[in-house]
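Self-study notes.
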Amino acid sequence: MGCPRGLQIDFTPADSWPAGVYEVVVVADKVTKRCTLTLPLDCDAATECSNESWTVITSGCMKSEQSVEGILFTGAPSSVKVTISSEGQTLGSGTYTPAYATTRPNGATCEPVCKSATVDPMAIQLSP
């Protein structure tokens, strides 16, 4: 059976985001990683904003419906700070100390052991 693992941070609003260049900065367990995301997205290409620790979740292939939904972590960081900015303006920032749930979907004595958490959505202030 599948194993939900990691941490997910959802962004609100998840509506259509205006075209532009967005910088995503994540500090997870004191390790800083950043990437740049350009909207409109190239729907034929892989998400340009990902690394071995986390991936920015995007949706929509019609330019008018594209949005940045949140961040999905492959691991279980104990502390996380996320900041989204565009053109030098901070659009949203959040600091989290996730409480992970541990489950064993194949039974109490069977592998795998899954650790997962979601946190309150991070507010994003988009320009009209």
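Second protein, same conventions, sequence then structure:
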Amino acid sequence: MQLAASERIRDMMRHLLALVAALSAAGVAAQSPSTAAEEPLMLLRAAKVLPMDRAPIDGGEVLVQGRTIRAVGRDLQVPEGTVVRDFGDGWLLPGFVELHCHVGVNGSDINDSVLPHNMDLRTLDLVTTKSVELRRAMAAGVTTALIIPGSGSTIGGIGALVKTAGPTFADRLVRFPGVLKIALHARGGNPARRAGDLGSGRIGLHYMLKVVMAQARDYHFARVAFENGEGPEPQFNPRLDPLRGLFRGEYPVLLHAYGVNDTMTAIRILKWGLHLPIVISHGVYDSFLIKNELARTGVPMNLGPRQYEFYDGSFVGNAAELYAAGVPVSICTDAPVVAEDQLPLQAAMAVRLGLPHDAALRGLTIEPAKAVFIDDRVGSLTVGKHADITVFPGDPIDPRHRPTFVMIEGRVTLDRDRDGAAAERAP
């Protein structure tokens, strides 16, 4: 009798579980957004598709639905009514990601050097939605840009990651904070304010940077202790509070640093001293001399706009030397110092000086995305990522070529074949 009762109970449980599963499935179906099925499909074909996270696909296809990539491959099966664009001999790849630029803002607004440390300032409020510079960047294949403060002070402020085109600024914002911008004493003299006070030289600048970043760390962990019920509530500090995300690993520090001295200083103070994620931008001149040390740290190097060092009577390609040692390498322009449409040319220069071709393309796409923690959204043609896509008539880093088609989050923003040479659609 006990056995029969146990079997009846098990049968009841099986039926109950089956009913729950059926109701759950029905619930999922009911909750699925009906708009997903209604979003238009577009199939893009090209002679060469470069996903960036795997091998190139000859005669490849990318299926886009709404704002995202739905499939990547060859001979994809698509429903009737799908819009098909065949780019013939074109090369199709992800949109470029630029990590060091000051476009889309009034250039005189990005430095406020009254104080050496301006971590509570931000470029988010400066970006203009109808920027000619951003439109030109988009027309060059740049779909994501990190717009950062200048280097007039040690801590310039917080930068914003934005798309170069989109219907509204809310649509275009990728992440804020994007990075904290810090400038070390580069060969050009910035961020020395030449006011005769502490920080005009490296010895004072480095000391102050260590002090203020240690204060930010202590403030963050005091707030953590309070939030966990393990200590008193510290007084709110509006200047230090914006930096808490750094210590949570939500975004990195991007450092304007040149050569061995500044590069190693950045690593000593911020990575080794405070265990913060950092990206070294510019990173040129003689940084290749410490390539093995850089490889051991794993710090990404964002190189440009100068791709060489004239050393011991010959041109040395920084990107090539660092990449060969195992350093993560990406490429930048520092626009408008060098115009944004010259980003592929910077990659071409790096290749001319020894950087492998595929590494240069990765240095325009997936590597910069990884460096600032947005590679889950952009940087490669991967299912589920943003449909940020560019098409070139040939090799994207051949200076003779420029994009013929640009798509940002599924929205066509440039189509030279259909709209003519001046096809830079309104952001």
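Instructor comment on the second fold: Confidence is low (pLDDT under 50) at residues 1-10, 12-35, 421-427.
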